[in-house]
Fold:
Amino acid sequence: MYYSSYQNQRKKSYFKTIIILLISSLIIGTIIYFLFFSGIKDFFKQNYSKSYIDRLIDHKEYDKALRIILKSISSTEELNWWYFYKAGIIYYYESDYLTSLLYFRSANFYDNFERIPLDINFYIGDNYYKLGKSYYPYAIKYFEKYMKVINTSKTLISEQDFLYKLSIMYVEVEEFEKAKKIMQKIFSLFENDYKFLYYYSLVLKNENKFDESLKFLRKIENNTNDLDLKKDSLFIQGKIYVDLEDYKKAIEYFLQCVDISPNSDISYYYLGYCYSQLHDSKTAINYLTKAIMLNNNNELAKNLLKALK
Structure:
């Protein structure tokens, strides 16, 4: 009797132990799943998603990629620099430079430079460059950052194309020495690029190398099909002859400028100035009056007209 009771107790204890072990295993298994396997699943899901986005961008399926990216950005769980960076790339490729700029700047805000690809400095700088001359100082800032790594990392564009843009901006902000160093380095690559030659002629003019500057300006004048560039080259030639005090020669070029661009108040001003130097006040006053009619804020024309009267 006693033995039978003892056996029953052992069986109950045995089954109780098994049940406890099963429950414990289930609990531990559940915890492991959520802490490990679920994390692995999310990890691969995230990487697959990013790889998928990259493939869409490579195949120029920008709308699909952008929908995924913007959805991820709207989710606080996915908020990181990578999505802002890729959105910036897409808008850049679609020539929406202002929106691209906003996303690239946001990428910088959400992480540090050590993790973000260094090419982001090019993208930000080039967006500023494409937004126009008033943004050139900002573009230069980021292009100079990019230039520091151009020889130490995989670059977005060829070095010469990048330096081409940077040299032009240096001329526009009148940092002629910096422009000269770059232009001399890449001159052989762009000696038949009329826009490059125009800016190079400005560097030469700044150094009073008038003969060399005129040589390139005449090449542009005689060969370019770009009327704006032709007008600019004629205008600079006119200014060089003003510096040389050859006012009759300068007038020839400024007259060609107004033929191409009849609303160029600055060209009319220089015509007035040249005629005033030739003591033809009547003609000078006519041209200065025309300049002011075109641009009432032309203070140079106003002051000279006042002096002549």
Q: What stands out?
A: The chain is about 80% helix and 0% strand. The first helix runs from residue 2 to 58.
